[in-house]
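Hi R.,

Here's the chain you asked about this morning:
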Amino acid sequence: FFNPSYQTYAVQLKPLASKFRYRQWKQAKGIAEATAAGADPDGDGIGILEEYAFGMDPAAASVTGRPFIGTEGADLTLTYQLERTRTDLIVGIEESTDLITWDPATVSSTATVSDNGSIRTYKAKVPLNGADKKFLRLKLTALTN
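And here is the predicted structure, written out as tokens:
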């Protein structure tokens, strides 16, 4: 017995499947669903949400794949990598002059630096605009826990 409405539901649910990748990844890595995004089971200073986003292993202490800051002329740069299948994340860049107040960064450009098919590396430029000091951070938000 075939009910065509089942196919309709499957089509409607397919876009939602990508929203559960973080949850599935945590389960596959043996991380309890209720574990906070900032938890750091391997002690490398990188939270599990970041490990997920950057395509890293939360059970192996490593800083390879961590974002880094640089300068180019009058711009501060933030270079970061993202696992290409991580479609269940909202990625933003924030800036601060005091490490207390953070605002969305005024990004002048973002370019793809490399892409190996699974990991894409980006470089974002944020003008210093004459500031004596400026700090950048990558803000990651998971659509699911």
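One quick note: Residues 1-14 have pLDDT under 50 and may be disordered.

Cheers,
M.
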